[in-house]
Design a protein that fits this description.
Elements: H1 5-10, E1 15-18, E2 35-38, H2 41-46, E3 50-52, H3 59-62, E4 70-73, H4 81-89, E5 93-96, H5 111-130, E6 138-140, E7 143-145, E8 149-153, H6 157-168, E9 172-176, H7 183-188, E10 192-193, H8 212-226, E11 231-234, H9 249-253, E12 260-263, E13 280-283, E14 286-289, H10 299-314, E15 318-319, E16 322-323, H11 330-335, E17 336-339, E18 342-343, E19 363-364
Parallel strand pairs: 1-2, 3-4, 4-5, 8-9, 8-11, 9-10, 11-12, 12-14
Antiparallel strand pairs: 5-17, 6-7, 13-14, 15-16, 16-19, 17-18
């Protein structure tokens, strides 16, 4: 984004971009100052020391990157074994944005959170325009209508933003999460918290998988809340894994006529058994909306936040036109996926034999693409 260009230049970077990179959000090349534009992606990355992207570049583009160059983007390595192997073969140092640790110091780099906040907001707007009724209470000379009842399932960043947005629009809101510690956050947003008596808190701020017994107990309690809701927004996701199923076919069958489910976890297969990722389907009298890559639907703001996330990460290892990676830095050591031909993520595949604990990664940063 143009607002980040001066900050990158201050780090000493010489910036190169693909022609038309911002056209999808009506951002012309002329909006960028002090940037060299190149049409061909292979030519663009060939001399780059650092390559910034949203999704990983195509394999043929990675083949053109310099050995030892740095790539910063979303990867989800367990879904991309061929890509990961190519990064290893090319000795590319890859920082995967989904691996940024969820610690206080790294909040400004946490792209998952920044994008999830936008998705939570958008889910309410999408649900409101699909629902055949209004969210707030409205009083007219003919009588009063509303408010609608909104249930948000999964109280991470997206879920909390959805609760806040639905409340601002006048709906009666309920929140549910398998992690009881989210109750206080839901209450702070004027929502009621659905108590199930099951604690499924896991590592890294994510929920663990429930046992069959726990799933049965939770389902019994949740059913009455699901079937009383006008709009349900589901947000439960575990990066790199299939989305947990929160709503069964039987629960959908008993929902109100005209009710709407917005499944924000469609990219991982969805939280509802009836979800068809990327499609809007009618199941009886219930509509299930399952958009993919929701932040891209708010591309301008998503790009603004993501570019700042990447800048803040880049600022940790680019200073005065020099790339210098401190592997004792927790943010960098946990975000890196591949380096010097070695895999740094056990989630992708068994790690390669370990080398030096602190490899020499100092080199001039001639070009950022």
């Amino acid at each position: 984004m143009p607002s980040v260009v001066p900050k990158l230049i201050k780090l000493g970077a010489k910036l190169h971009m693909q022609i038309g990179a911002g056209s999808a959000i009506k951002l012309t090349d002329a909006a960028f100052r002090d940037v060299t534009f190149i049409a061909d992606r292979k030519e663009l990355v060939a001399d780059a020391d650092v390559v910034l992207a949203v999704q990983p570049p195509a394999l043929e583009v990675i083949n053109e990157m310099k050995e030892g160059a740095i790539l910063v983007c979303f990867v989800y390595a367990n879904r991309e074994p061929v890509l990961v192997q190519r990064l290893l073969d090319r000795k590319i140092t890859c920082f995967a944005m989904e691996r940024v640790p969820r610690i206080t110091r790294a909040q400004a780099m946490d792209a998952l959170s920044s994008q999830s906040a936008l998705a939570g907001y958008y889910a309410v707007q999408l649900g409101a325009t699909t629902l055949g009724r209004v969210l707030p209470k409205i009083t007219t000379a003919a009588g009063a209508i509303g408010p609608a009842k909104v249930l948000v399932m999964g109280l991470g960043v997206a879920g909390l933003e959805a609760l806040a947005t639905a409340h601002r629009l006048g709906a009666v809101t309920e929140g549910y999460d398998v992690r009881p510690e989210t109750k206080e956050q839901a209450l702070s947003l004027a929502a009621t918290f659905v108590e199930t008596g099951v604690d499924a808190g896991g590592k890294g701020g994510y929920a663990r998988e429930l046992t069959p017994e726990e799933k049965a107990k939770v389902a019994t309690i949740l059913t009455k809340h699901i079937q009383a809701a006008d709009l349900i927004i589901t947000t439960a996701a575990i990066p790199g894994r299939a989305s947990p199923k929160l709503i069964s076919k039987e629960q959908v069958a008993g929902m109100k006529a005209g009710a709407v489910i917005v499944d924000l976890s469609a990219d991982g297969g969805g939280n509802c058994e009836d979800t068809l990722p990327g499609e809007t389907v009618q199941i009886g009298q219930v509509t299930i909306v399952a958009p993919l890559n929701v932040p891209s639907l708010l591309g301008e703001d998503a790009s603004e936040l993501y570019s700042k996330n990447q800048y803040n990460l880049l600022a940790l290892f680019v200073k005065d036109n020099i790339v210098e990676i401190d592997w004792d830095d927790e943010v960098l050591s946990k975000t890196v996926l591949t380096h010097a031909g070695e895999l740094k993520s056990e989630a992708a595949k068994p790690p390669a034999p370990s080398g030096s604990s602190k490899p020499d990664a100092t080199k001039p940063a001639a070009k950022v693409a």
